[in-house]
Write a structure and sequence with these properties.
Blueprint lengths: L2 E4 L4 E4 L5 E3 L2 E3 L4 H10 L5 E3 L3 E5 L3 E3 L4 E3 L16 E5 L9 E5 L8 E3 L2 E4 L7 E7 L4 E3 L2 E3 L6 E5 L5 E3 L2 E3 L8 E5 L25 E4 L2 E3 L6 E3 L4 E5 L2 E3 L3 E3 L11 E5 L2 E3 L20 E3 L3 E5 L17 E3 L25 E3 L5 E2 L11 E5 L2 E4 L9 E2 L29 E3 L48
């Protein structure tokens, strides 16, 4: 069978199972080579279709223009049960190979970079890579994908930029491996680095300065379902964390540390009986719902049950850490005086801010720093008030190479660096659902029935107090 193809400069015929073209839609045969060929041929704004079926990719696909990559099927929430139908891609890239789908996102739009309706499965080979990677400086959209990572693939998604929206995705780990990452978000975006003004809440006037992770489900991603890394500005809202926790980096094991984060209207679930689909018994050894180690933010209106496993003996559902006082860090000397570099409760205000300096060393991070406590309020559940530090017996975690004997309780102090039970004055969340979700005007009819995701609310819960 032959298919007529109309291109801007000539009329030709494509046969032999290669991609076909209709206007700006490129329908592939599902192989990595054919998808890459269609990507290379397509103009910005085109749609690349991967049909329903099961495919195994041993090579990655690289995308350097804003396209829509769409499959057939929709997996919104769910328990991680075996998939039926739809577009399923198994990641069989060899060890130390590239990411399966690597997207270099461009500014501007429309068109935007969009990935939707794909199931990307861990093929078991130790790739040390990611199922999907976004980099660049734009605002990508990730919708209705099923992302599986269980040790062969290290991350469901590496979101290496500030900006964009991910919603109605499921990230699933079937072996409860604590080193599996759901969404890791570091960035080197020019103009959106640590030493630039806050864009928290409604201060993100255009909705493009922060990364919005909303209405997703994370299953058995024990301690890394989210990981806020270098310079990241993240809004984590209306998600379901099924036996899954996460955390952030300070300027210790991360060169810059996270900038700010908003965690609200999420539901965390802790199972005490039964087994995972892989046969591992609950409860899993979850250490915290969030380990927060740098910058500032708000945590409110979440459902936080008590965690009774806590593999490393930690005592708080929300742990506040400061590793750069007790281990040799990446970017700064061992800290000995308050405030430590970019610790919890610190922000950047520019003119009028203080100059960060460690006694006995040259100036490290320049001027413009200021204080901005983390606020916790309106959280419910048996673990809602479990906010504090790692166990004092574990202050050396992960090691004690500095040798100064510094105590985290002298650096992160309630009422100064974090405040419980009070809304942040003047704070108002950015619009929910994110307006960019309306960009998806072409979504194939689902081939599997999505499982509803329980949420705390279908509308945003605004905190009490002033609004802009």
């Amino acid at each position: 069978m032959t298919v007529a193809v109309v291109l801007p400069t000539f009329v030709g015929v494509i046969s032999g199972g290669a991609y076909t073209v209709s206007k700006s839609t490129y329908t592939t045969n599902g192989t990595a080579a054919d998808v890459q060929a269609a990507v290379n041929a397509a103009r910005t704004g085109s749609t690349i279709v991967i049909p329903s079926g099961s495919y195994t990719w041993s090579t990655g696909v690289t995308i350097s223009k804003n396209l829509t990559i769409t499959g057939s099927g929709s997996w919104s929430g769910g328990s991680g049960a075996p998939l039926v139908g739809g577009t399923q891609i198994t990641n069989k890239i060899s060890a130390n190979g590239p990411d399966l789908i690597s997207c270099r996102v461009s500014n501007g739009g429309p068109p935007l970079m969009i990935i939707e309706n794909l199931a990307v499965l861990d093929g078991g080979t130790d790739t040390n890579g990611n199922n999907i990677r976004f980099s660049g400086s734009g605002t990508p959209l990730l919708c209705s994908c099923y992302l599986h990572a269980s040790g062969g693939v290290n991350r469901c998604v590496l979101w290496a930029l500030n900006g964009g929206v991910a919603w109605n995705n499921t990230c699933y780990s079937d072996d409860g491996n604590p080193e599996i990452f759901g969404f890791e978000i570091p960035t080197d975006n020019p103009g959106r680095l640590w030493q630039s003004p806050s864009t928290i809440g409604a201060a993100d006037a255009t909705g493009t300065s922060n990364t919005y992770i909303e209405d997703n489900t994370f299953n058995n991603v024990i301690s890394q379902s989210f990981d806020f890394a270098d310079n990241s500005r993240v809004v984590l809202r209306f998600n379901t964390f099924n036996n899954s926790g996460g955390g952030s980096h300070g300027q210790d094991t991360s060169a810059n540390g996270c900038r700010h984060w908003e965690i609200y209207n999420n539901t965390f679930i802790f199972s005490t009986s039964g087994k995972t689909l892989a046969g591992k018994p609950y409860p899993l050894n979850i250490n915290w719902w969030a380990l927060l180690r740098g910058g500032t933010g708000v945590v409110f209106n979440n459902v936080l049950p008590k965690i009774t496993s806590m593999e490393w003996g930690r005592k708080n559902a929300i742990a506040l850490g400061d590793f750069n006082i007790n281990q040799i860090p990446n970017a700064v000397p061992c800290q000995t005086v308050y405030p430590s570099a970019r610790q919890i409760g610190q922000t950047w205000i520019g003119s009028g801010g203080y100059s960060y300096r460690t006694p006995g060393t040259a100036q490290v991070d320049g001027t413009g720093y200021g204080t901005d406590p983390v606020y916790f309020w309106g959280n419910t559940g048996t673990g809602a008030t479990s906010i504090g530090y790692p166990n004092q017996s574990d202050l050396a975690f992960p090691n004690h190479s500095c040798g100064h004997g510094m105590d985290v309780t002298n650096f992160i102090v309630s009422g100064r660096d974090y405040i419980v039970g009070k809304a942040k004055d003047g704070y108002r969340p950015y619009t929910y659902p994110h307006p960019l979700r309306s960009q998806l005007t072409r979504t194939p009819t689902p081939e599997s029935t999505p499982t509803p995701v329980a949420k705390t609310s279908e509308t945003p819960h605004y905190p009490p107090g002033p609004r802009y």
